[in-house]
Fold:
Amino acid sequence: MKYSDERREAILKKLLPPHNRTVAEVAQEEGISAATLYHWRKKARQAGRLLPDQGDDPEGWSSQDKFHAVLETAAMSEAERAEYCRQRGLYPEQIQRWRASCEGANDRSDAASRQQGEARKADRRENKELKRELRRKEAALAETAALLTLRKKARAIWGDEDE
Structure:
């Protein structure tokens, strides 16, 4: 069945604040399959619209949805940002927190990669030391085995003196 663009937009608005309806609720109410609604939401997201998974609590939004909210509000004035937040059931402080998190993301990844590099270096050093110790112990074991074999051959040749 083909739905008009206006009808599709009206249905997608039910997923947004202040309604914050779930896909299952809207599908039941409208008589449209949930798969169709998920498809519409996915297409709208690809077009750059903000349609979060869970509408109840903005803190439960995915990081991608939070990032899109930060992008949408980046060039807005404070009054425009406040209106945007009212329409979506957000607080301006949440947007500020999410923006700070986005801005600090690269710093955290740099620090994490540095820590991983240091950990890899320590692991390689430990691995090298363990291999060296294993070679030393294998050589000692081979020497001991050779001495035992020699001792056994000497007893066989000269007879056992212990008996």
